[in-house]
Design a protein that fits this description.
By secondary structure, the chain is an all-alpha fold. The chain folds into two domains: about 160 residues, Ferritin, core subunit, four-helix bundle (Ferritin), CATH 1.20.1260.10; about 160 residues, no CATH class. It is elongated and about 90 Å long. The N and C termini lie far apart (about 70 Å).
């Protein structure tokens, strides 16, 4: 098929094209490392310095490759990029990685180095020119040792205090971006939907109707909480992170909190469904207390008392209204 011919096979590339591909790849990797550095600089300046150093290494590799290319083939370097070669390793778009945690970014960098090493080994094996073969072999060794370079840079820039500070900053951002809005959503979804679900249950004794009311209440509350959280704060001044992430955390957890005690009403028998919903509510409230204790450092029994008392009041209101 025609679209299969739009990409070259690596085995069909000439040495001139292989060197051009290596040059463009080194340029891309240097830019990626610099992007990581810029992404981390405000919160993790020491780790940003590591990626700055790795970008400088890639610049040196590119300089050596260009010098060899111009010596052998002249000044016109053909534009050949990764996406032009079938089977060539790809790089994930920076925006898919840069919003993840610092450890995930470091893991991605290690994978980049391994891919580059394999490429240079394969390229060196195909080269017949001694100087080209030697350089490609040197670059393969350099990429293999890039992890050691990163470790050297880490020793230079990341002392124990810096690592501890970065870990605290990363943990705080995780709490503010995911845990806090997610916990607020879970509490809202679990508690606020108790009254309409159990009021409907005891008013109708119809499990199907109760489930539909619970489903609507849960989804509606999730959408409302998600948009409210996302619109409440852009995260720039508060440091709470992406409003989209916070909105997703709040919205999804609100919906799950309500669905937890709505789903039992898929059971046809009213009392079996209601007793199951009671158990689910109990588990939800204790899970909320555990999360508050684990991540928000609220004393467990204090958190349990607050959550259980609030939930019990809303639950009682729903039962009384439904039974009236």
């Amino acid at each position: 098929m025609r679209f299969l011919t739009q990409r070259r096979q690596f085995r069909d590339l000439s040495e001139r094209e292989i060197l051009a591909l290596a040059i463009s790849s080194e340029e891309d990797d240097a830019q990626i490392y610099r992007s990581y550095g810029e992404r981390l600089r405000a919160e993790f300046p020491d780790s940003a310095a590591i990626f700055d150093g790795m970008a400088t290494e890639e610049d040196e590799h590119r300089r050596r490759l260009i010098a060899l290319f111009t010596e052998r083939f002249g000044n016109t370097i053909p534009l050949i990029r990764r996406e032009h070669v079938a089977g060539y390793y790809a790089r994930r778009p920076v925006w898919l990685i840069e919003n993840l945690g610092i450890e995930r970014i470091r893991e991605e960098a290690e994978g980049m180095e391994r891919d580059a090493e394999h490429f240079y080994l394969a390229a060196a094996a195909r080269s017949t020119d001694p100087a080209t073969r030697a350089l490609l072999g040197d670059l393969a060794a350099a990429e293999a040792g890039h992890q050691r370079k990163a470790e050297d840079l880490a020793e230079r820039y990341l002392d124990d205090d810096s690592k501890a500070a970065e870990a605290r900053s990363s943990h705080r951002k995780f709490i503010l971006t995911w845990v806090q809005p997610g916990l607020a959503g879970l509490m809202d979804g679990s508690v606020s939907t108790l009254a309409p679900i159990f009021a409907t249950a005891f008013a109708t004794h119809d499990t199907g109707t109760t489930f539909l009311v619970g489903l609507a209440a849960s989804i509606g509350a999730g959408i409302s909480m998600g948009f409210t959280e996302a619109a409440s704060d852009d995260g720039e001044l508060s440091g709470r992170g992406s409003p989209v992430k916070r909105g997703i955390a709040a919205g999804v957890m609100t919906t799950l909190g309500g669905l937890g005690h709505a789903l039992p009403y898929l059971i046809p028998d009213f009392w079996t469904a209601t007793i199951t919903a009671f158990v689910v509510v109990f588990l939800e409230l204790w899970a909320i207390a555990w999360i508050q204790n684990r991540y928000m450092e609220t004393p467990f029994f204090r958190a349990a008392f607050q959550v259980v008392l609030g939930g019990a009041l809303v639950f009682a209101a729903g039962v009384l209204i439904g039974s009236g």
